[in-house]
């Protein structure tokens, strides 16, 4: 039996994610919207296994699994949003990226007022793998805040805390240099909820005025410039994600 055969039967949403068309969650939404055909029949449930011979179409177009995993690092500038479409017609990362990358998937997000490392991939399955908290990929941020830092309050949010009914997990915070009324801190998270860092610091009376993601798992921002894009080598991916390649 070949390695390819061992991967079947395969859930339909997982196959779509592996094609690079969408994340698994987006694939499930496409199925519910009746945009997916398996062997000529439209399906409306993601609870379906396919085999190696199945023909899959999305919006009438046949799709195939990606032959090679590709990943890029991108330095997202401030004022740009991480989405393919925006109802308010704001500038998105896809307005900056080369046209041949208009269908790549972002791994995690940064809000419009945050900047730094965004990862992009042609695999929705790999995106999901990096985003799942159970896989324990740390995200590190440098944060500039305004206000007086209280060490005891910092330790309080480091332990994990509930704010407005939302539970925020443990994190690591390092206090850096002070410049005038501002101070720099580093914070490391294992998952990122919506505007989590801003809410944590606001809870201890600190106002975030700059937020920069510098790493995500083994990927580093390093010396990249704003708006710069770099492809990650296959050698690096195989070395750092050996477990993933053999799942």
Structural account:
This protein is an alpha+beta fold and 247 residues long. It has three domains: 3-62, RNA-binding S4 domain (Structural Genomics Hypothetical 15.5 Kd Protein In mrcA-pckA Intergenic Region, Chain A); 71-134 and 224-245, 2-Layer Sandwich (Alpha-Beta Plaits); 138-216, Pseudouridine synthase, CATH 3.30.2350. Helix content is 23%, strand content 30%. Strands 7, 8, 9, 10, 13, 14, 15, 16 and 17 form a nine-stranded mixed sheet that branches. The protein has a four-stranded antiparallel sheet with strand order 3-2-5-6, with no helix packed on it. Strand 13 and strand 14 form a beta hairpin. Helix 2 packs across helix 3 (24-32). The longest helix is centred in the first third of the chain and has 9 residues, at 24-32.
Write the layout of secondary structure elements.
Layout: H1 3-6, E1 10-11, H2 12-19, H3 24-32, E2 36-38, E3 41-42, E4 49-50, E5 56-58, E6 61-62, E7 71-76, E8 105-107, E9 115-121, H4 124-131, E10 139-146, H5 151-158, E11 161-163, E12 166-168, E13 172-179, E14 182-189, H6 196-203, E15 207-216, E16 219-220, E17 229-231, H7 234-240, H8 242-245
Parallel strand pairs: 9-15
Antiparallel strand pairs: 1-4, 2-3, 2-5, 5-6, 7-9, 7-17, 8-9, 10-14, 10-15, 11-12, 13-14, 15-16
